[in-house]
């Protein structure tokens, strides 16, 4: 069985092939049962989350991700997301690979947002605001830069020091990035805004969004979390990775649905419909688009298969 550590997983998941692989999996006959989502009490700290996410393509590959999210791990200088992906043959059941789950999650999440941006962000998008300076931030900036001609990046975080450190890391990767102190000003200047936080309260206000903005919401993965306010929902065309997930789990969708501000039929499309062409994405340069991602097991399966093959696994099961 092939075993890939964090570095090997990163090297086996280059951006454009990964974005294409995720897109292809949204078209594939992939079976994705409802994931197990369990809250785990951590005495004296924020509650943790354990996710179990299975998926398979009949006769080809199957896998499951076991992911632990511990919000207070920064107090221990440990990553917030720790996990493992087990990839198997869906023809024989043979274990094929064990892929480091944190890196797989970070990269497939960013790749999914970039895939959505292919359909929802303006083709001439040049500026990006990254809200949040955690593990996903660099991945999201790099992934979006792979699909749009981004020239400038601003990083905002509640901690100015973390924002500056993230911007410095981005510069080391060749991105023109700076830390921003004024969130409203940075949002008003951005063609793409990507949020990856654990915020309980809205960070981005709809009044800040200029025509043509694309808002990518990746964090706030529980119903009581939120990164955008009601005005964002009211002004934007709303898209999701999957209706089943976003309408149940993501507070940016769940809360407006509950209040009646948003109705289910007003969600323009889920990602599978954009990829297949059955529903349109952006149709004019003036539209404000909003994409809410809560993650889907098929994204992990796509990444694990790509990593397996890129690292020298058999091309076919």
Considering the chains and any ligands shown, give keywords for the structure:
single chain, 317 residues, alpha/beta, ornithine cyclodeaminase, domain 1, Rossmann fold, 2 domains, eight-stranded parallel sheet, six-stranded mixed sheet, 11 helices, 23% strand, globular
How would you concisely characterize the structure shown here?
The protein has 317 residues and is α/β, with parallel strands linked by helices. The chain contains eleven helices and 14 strands.
Description of the structure:
The chain has 2 domains: 2-104 and 298-310, 2-Layer Sandwich (ornithine cyclodeaminase, domain 1), CATH 3.30.1780.10; 122-295, Rossmann fold (3-Layer(aba) Sandwich). Helix content is 36%, strand content 23%. The chain contains 11 helices and 14 strands. The protein has an 8-stranded parallel sheet, sandwiched between helices. Strands 1-6-5-4-3-2 form a 6-stranded mixed sheet. α2 (15-27) packs across α3, α2 crosses α11 (297-310) and α3 (101-120) packs across α11. It is globular. The chain starts with a strand and ends in a 7-residue tail after the last helix. The relative contact order is 0.17. The model has no long low-confidence stretch (mean pLDDT 96). Keywords: NAD.
Question: What does the overall shape look like?
Answer: globular
CATH superfamily of the largest domain: NAD(P)-binding Rossmann-like Domain
Strand content: 15-25%
Which structural class best describes the helix and strand composition?
alpha/beta
Q: Work out the count of structural domains.
A: 2
Order of helices and strands: EHHEEEEEHEHEHEHEEHEHHEHEH
> Are there runs of 5+ residues with pLDDT below 50, and where?
none
Q: Can you count the helices?
A: 11
Which second-level CATH architecture of the largest domain applies? 3-Layer(aba) Sandwich
Q: What is the number of beta strands?
A: 14
The CATH class of the largest domain is identified as: Alpha Beta
Query: Averaging pLDDT over every residue, what do you get?
Result: 96
Q: Order of strands side by side in the largest beta sheet? A: 9-8-7-10-11-14-12-13
- As a whole number of angstroms, the C-alpha radius of gyration is 18 Å
Return the CATH topology of the largest domain. Rossmann fold
Distance between the termini: 13 Å
Query: Percent of residues in helical segments?
Result: 25-40%
Q: What can be said about the biggest beta sheet?
A: 8 strands, parallel
